[in-house]
Amino acid sequence: MAINQLLSDFVAGQPFTPTFKDLFKSMDLCDLKDVKVVFVNAYPSDEKGVANGLAFGGNVNPFVNSLNDIASDEFIDGPAPSLEFVPKDNGVLLLNMALTCPIGKQTDHLPMWTPVFEKLIADIAYKTLNTIFVFIGNETEYLGKAVRKGQYKFFLPEVPVDGDWNNIEVFSKINTLLKKLDKEPVNW
Q1: Does domain 2-180 correspond to CATH entry 1.10.486.10?
Q2: What is the pTM of this model?
Q3: Are 21 and 75 in contact (CB under 8 A)?
Q4: Extents of the domains making up the chain
């Protein structure tokens, strides 16, 4: 149903983001068998030409919002990580709950993608072991119910207006947990 709606919008000249070629980029870059960490954001950027199919990703600046703010606060003594490489090399899946949105209307496609995404999170939770899920924003929090026992959840608030994510240390917490699970830490 969602793909049919996108095709209909495309034919009608109603632009959306990201493009078809980037629609499943996050899943192309991280095989399910390799998943260690799943970041879940609510929406892609609604600016034309910015979204690239990765949560927090963008073609203008690789990570233009939340994750970059978190990383900047956590890595005060050095440069914030460039996370564009993470999905390919480190088992990090960067998902947007709404895989697409119309230009200038960030929330409009959320109802269309919600059933697909709920199934996707349940499948990832069912088919992987000791996976760490990071849900960012109030819209994503209810998806934590799909995470089964033996997996791990972090819930982060909405992006603060001032970008202040001090004391969250999510990257350090993830790596500490991965070490306890005898998994290779992520090279942020």
Answers
A1: no
A2: 0.84
A3: no
A4: 2-180
